[in-house]
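Risk register update: the risk of archive-format incompatibility is retired. Evidence:
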Amino acid sequence: MKPEDLAREINKVLADYSDEVIDKTKEAVEKVANETNEVIKSHISFNDKGGKYAKSCKISRSFNSRTNVRYTWHVTKYYPLTHLLEYGHALRRGRKSKSISSR
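Archived output:
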């Protein structure tokens, strides 16, 4: 076997291995993103009648290339509620509700 052929074969094996590692890593990242979403949904502690707020929590793929993938967690439909829960909001007669974080 010539040295050029050996180098070509080594490069081929390394490229195949690299592709396999990238695929497995992307699968692991997707699995962790989905598990994170489920954990967040299970920790919603306020009285969510019907679970509408929890159901609107989603994971979306925000970036995907050959070697890189990113997921973003967000609330789709009830996102204004997130702000109200975090910072409180005005009630009748000039009162203000407490934020979830200060309870």
